[in-house]
Model the fold of this input.
Amino acid sequence: MKLYHFPISPNSRRVVAVLHHLDLACELQALDLSKGEHMQPYFLSLNPNHMIPTLVDGDFVLWESNAIMQYLCSKAPDNSLWPMDPKNQADVSRWQFWQASHFGRACGVFIYEHLVKKFLNQGEPDASEIAKAEDSFHRFASVLEAHLAGREWLVGDGVTLADLSVGSFLDLAEMAQYPIASYAEILRWYGNIGQLPAWQSSAPAKIA
Ligand SMILES: N[C@@H](CCC(=O)N[C@@H](CS)C(=O)NCC(=O)O)C(=O)O
Done:
Protein backbone atom coordinates (compact mmCIF):
# COMPACT_ATOMS: atom_id res chain seq x y z
CA MET A 1 0.00 0.00 0.00
CA LYS A 2 1.04 3.59 -0.54
CA LEU A 3 -0.35 6.62 1.25
CA TYR A 4 -0.03 10.14 -0.14
CA HIS A 5 -0.11 12.55 2.77
CA PHE A 6 0.91 15.97 4.08
CA PRO A 7 2.27 15.40 7.58
CA ILE A 8 0.88 18.50 9.33
CA SER A 9 -2.65 17.85 8.06
CA PRO A 10 -4.98 16.39 10.73
CA ASN A 11 -6.72 14.43 7.96
CA SER A 12 -3.40 12.79 7.14
CA ARG A 13 -2.11 12.27 10.64
CA ARG A 14 -5.07 10.24 11.80
CA VAL A 15 -4.61 7.83 8.89
CA VAL A 16 -0.90 7.48 9.67
CA ALA A 17 -1.81 6.88 13.33
CA VAL A 18 -4.09 4.00 12.28
CA LEU A 19 -1.28 2.48 10.20
CA HIS A 20 1.02 2.68 13.22
CA HIS A 21 -1.57 1.43 15.70
CA LEU A 22 -2.34 -1.61 13.54
CA ASP A 23 1.29 -2.07 12.52
CA LEU A 24 0.38 -2.20 8.82
CA ALA A 25 3.06 -1.94 6.15
CA CYS A 26 2.54 1.07 3.91
CA GLU A 27 4.83 3.34 1.94
CA LEU A 28 4.35 7.00 2.90
CA GLN A 29 4.70 9.59 0.17
CA ALA A 30 4.59 13.18 1.42
CA LEU A 31 3.26 15.78 -1.02
CA ASP A 32 4.11 19.42 -0.39
CA LEU A 33 0.82 21.25 -0.88
CA SER A 34 2.56 24.64 -0.74
CA LYS A 35 4.51 23.64 -3.86
CA GLY A 36 1.42 22.36 -5.65
CA GLU A 37 2.65 18.77 -5.68
CA HIS A 38 -0.96 17.62 -5.29
CA MET A 39 -1.83 19.24 -8.65
CA GLN A 40 0.46 17.03 -10.72
CA PRO A 41 -1.38 15.02 -13.41
CA TYR A 42 -0.41 11.64 -11.94
CA PHE A 43 -1.92 12.61 -8.58
CA LEU A 44 -5.05 14.12 -10.14
CA SER A 45 -5.63 10.80 -11.86
CA LEU A 46 -5.64 9.17 -8.41
CA ASN A 47 -7.70 11.85 -6.69
CA PRO A 48 -9.47 14.39 -8.90
CA ASN A 49 -10.28 16.40 -5.74
CA HIS A 50 -6.51 17.01 -5.46
CA MET A 51 -6.59 16.19 -1.78
CA ILE A 52 -4.50 14.21 0.61
CA PRO A 53 -4.71 11.71 2.17
CA THR A 54 -5.11 9.25 -0.69
CA LEU A 55 -4.41 5.53 -0.40
CA VAL A 56 -3.39 3.20 -3.22
CA ASP A 57 -3.71 -0.51 -2.55
CA GLY A 58 -2.89 -2.40 -5.76
CA ASP A 59 -5.45 -1.22 -8.29
CA PHE A 60 -7.76 0.17 -5.60
CA VAL A 61 -7.55 3.90 -4.92
CA LEU A 62 -9.33 5.36 -1.90
CA TRP A 63 -9.68 8.97 -0.80
CA GLU A 64 -11.46 10.51 2.20
CA SER A 65 -9.54 9.98 5.41
CA ASN A 66 -12.37 8.45 7.43
CA ALA A 67 -13.07 5.88 4.70
CA ILE A 68 -9.34 5.10 4.52
CA MET A 69 -9.22 4.56 8.30
CA GLN A 70 -12.12 2.12 8.14
CA TYR A 71 -10.57 0.30 5.17
CA LEU A 72 -7.25 -0.07 6.97
CA CYS A 73 -9.06 -1.60 9.93
CA SER A 74 -10.49 -4.25 7.61
CA LYS A 75 -6.87 -5.35 7.04
CA ALA A 76 -6.46 -6.21 10.73
CA PRO A 77 -9.51 -8.26 11.75
CA ASP A 78 -10.78 -8.01 15.33
CA ASN A 79 -8.97 -4.80 16.11
CA SER A 80 -10.60 -2.55 18.68
CA LEU A 81 -10.33 0.66 16.64
CA TRP A 82 -13.29 -0.37 14.46
CA PRO A 83 -15.51 -2.58 16.60
CA MET A 84 -17.56 -5.28 14.88
CA ASP A 85 -20.61 -4.95 17.12
CA PRO A 86 -23.13 -3.08 14.90
CA LYS A 87 -24.14 -0.50 17.50
CA ASN A 88 -20.58 0.29 18.55
CA GLN A 89 -19.51 0.45 14.92
CA ALA A 90 -22.35 2.82 14.08
CA ASP A 91 -21.42 4.93 17.09
CA VAL A 92 -17.83 5.20 15.86
CA SER A 93 -19.11 6.09 12.39
CA ARG A 94 -21.41 8.69 13.89
CA TRP A 95 -18.46 10.57 15.43
CA GLN A 96 -16.44 10.30 12.24
CA PHE A 97 -19.30 11.83 10.22
CA TRP A 98 -19.81 14.45 12.93
CA GLN A 99 -16.15 15.41 12.73
CA ALA A 100 -16.26 15.70 8.94
CA SER A 101 -19.55 17.59 8.84
CA HIS A 102 -19.44 19.82 11.90
CA PHE A 103 -16.53 19.95 14.34
CA GLY A 104 -13.77 19.68 11.73
CA ARG A 105 -15.38 22.38 9.61
CA ALA A 106 -15.48 24.81 12.52
CA CYS A 107 -11.82 24.05 13.34
CA GLY A 108 -10.95 24.34 9.65
CA VAL A 109 -11.82 28.03 9.60
CA PHE A 110 -9.32 28.74 12.40
CA ILE A 111 -6.72 26.64 10.60
CA TYR A 112 -7.29 28.53 7.36
CA GLU A 113 -7.44 32.01 8.87
CA HIS A 114 -4.54 31.67 11.31
CA LEU A 115 -2.22 29.15 9.67
CA VAL A 116 -2.86 28.51 5.98
CA LYS A 117 -3.12 32.19 5.07
CA LYS A 118 0.19 32.89 6.78
CA PHE A 119 1.81 29.83 5.23
CA LEU A 120 0.65 30.80 1.72
CA ASN A 121 1.08 34.55 2.14
CA GLN A 122 -2.63 35.19 1.64
CA GLY A 123 -3.01 38.14 3.99
CA GLU A 124 -4.44 38.77 7.44
CA PRO A 125 -7.10 36.65 9.20
CA ASP A 126 -10.67 37.77 8.43
CA ALA A 127 -12.30 38.79 11.73
CA SER A 128 -15.87 38.21 10.49
CA GLU A 129 -15.06 34.65 9.38
CA ILE A 130 -13.43 33.97 12.74
CA ALA A 131 -16.47 35.33 14.62
CA LYS A 132 -18.78 32.98 12.68
CA ALA A 133 -16.43 30.07 13.30
CA GLU A 134 -16.39 30.83 17.03
CA ASP A 135 -20.16 30.40 17.21
CA SER A 136 -19.95 27.13 15.36
CA PHE A 137 -16.96 25.94 17.40
CA HIS A 138 -18.76 26.56 20.71
CA ARG A 139 -21.94 24.91 19.46
CA PHE A 140 -20.15 21.65 18.62
CA ALA A 141 -17.42 21.73 21.27
CA SER A 142 -20.19 21.93 23.90
CA VAL A 143 -21.66 18.69 22.56
CA LEU A 144 -18.26 17.00 22.70
CA GLU A 145 -17.54 18.37 26.17
CA ALA A 146 -20.83 17.06 27.58
CA HIS A 147 -20.36 13.65 25.98
CA LEU A 148 -16.86 13.26 27.41
CA ALA A 149 -17.82 13.95 31.02
CA GLY A 150 -17.02 10.76 32.95
CA ARG A 151 -15.57 9.00 29.91
CA GLU A 152 -12.04 8.21 28.85
CA TRP A 153 -12.90 7.60 25.18
CA LEU A 154 -15.71 8.62 22.84
CA VAL A 155 -17.11 5.10 22.33
CA GLY A 156 -16.79 2.23 24.80
CA ASP A 157 -13.81 1.63 27.04
CA GLY A 158 -10.91 2.01 24.65
CA VAL A 159 -9.59 4.12 21.82
CA THR A 160 -11.45 3.81 18.51
CA LEU A 161 -11.38 5.53 15.13
CA ALA A 162 -13.83 8.02 16.64
CA ASP A 163 -11.15 9.39 18.98
CA LEU A 164 -8.53 9.56 16.25
CA SER A 165 -10.87 11.32 13.82
CA VAL A 166 -12.26 13.92 16.20
CA GLY A 167 -9.03 14.28 18.19
CA SER A 168 -6.87 14.87 15.14
CA PHE A 169 -8.25 18.39 14.83
CA LEU A 170 -7.05 19.30 18.32
CA ASP A 171 -3.47 18.96 17.19
CA LEU A 172 -3.54 22.44 15.79
CA ALA A 173 -5.68 23.99 18.55
CA GLU A 174 -2.98 26.21 19.94
CA MET A 175 -1.35 27.30 16.69
CA ALA A 176 -4.73 27.93 15.02
CA GLN A 177 -6.11 29.66 18.14
CA TYR A 178 -9.29 27.64 18.71
CA PRO A 179 -11.28 29.10 21.65
CA ILE A 180 -10.82 25.84 23.56
CA ALA A 181 -9.34 26.86 26.92
CA SER A 182 -12.57 26.41 28.92
CA TYR A 183 -13.29 22.89 27.62
CA ALA A 184 -11.66 20.87 30.40
CA GLU A 185 -13.14 17.50 29.39
CA ILE A 186 -11.99 17.85 25.79
CA LEU A 187 -8.48 18.80 26.89
CA ARG A 188 -8.35 15.88 29.35
CA TRP A 189 -9.50 13.44 26.67
CA TYR A 190 -7.02 14.81 24.15
CA GLY A 191 -4.36 14.07 26.78
CA ASN A 192 -5.41 10.40 26.60
CA ILE A 193 -4.93 10.42 22.84
CA GLY A 194 -1.54 12.04 23.32
CA GLN A 195 -0.42 9.05 25.40
CA LEU A 196 -1.02 6.57 22.58
CA PRO A 197 2.23 5.28 21.07
CA ALA A 198 0.69 5.47 17.57
CA TRP A 199 -0.27 9.10 18.17
CA GLN A 200 3.22 9.97 19.31
CA SER A 201 4.94 8.17 16.45
CA SER A 202 2.68 9.80 13.84
CA ALA A 203 3.44 13.33 15.04
CA PRO A 204 4.61 15.66 12.26
CA ALA A 205 7.91 17.48 12.62
CA LYS A 206 7.43 20.80 14.45
CA ILE A 207 6.78 23.79 12.24
CA ALA A 208 7.67 27.37 13.13
N1 LIG B 1 -12.63 15.27 3.55
C1 LIG B 1 -11.24 15.07 3.19
C2 LIG B 1 -10.51 16.38 3.42
C3 LIG B 1 -9.07 16.30 2.95
C4 LIG B 1 -8.43 17.67 2.89
O1 LIG B 1 -9.09 18.69 3.21
N2 LIG B 1 -7.17 17.71 2.51
C5 LIG B 1 -6.50 18.98 2.35
C6 LIG B 1 -5.30 19.06 3.29
S1 LIG B 1 -5.81 18.98 4.97
C7 LIG B 1 -5.97 19.08 0.93
O2 LIG B 1 -5.45 18.11 0.42
N3 LIG B 1 -6.10 20.24 0.31
C8 LIG B 1 -5.58 20.51 -0.98
C9 LIG B 1 -6.60 21.08 -1.91
O3 LIG B 1 -7.78 21.23 -1.52
O4 LIG B 1 -6.24 21.39 -3.05
C10 LIG B 1 -10.64 13.94 4.02
O5 LIG B 1 -11.08 13.74 5.15
O6 LIG B 1 -9.75 13.23 3.52
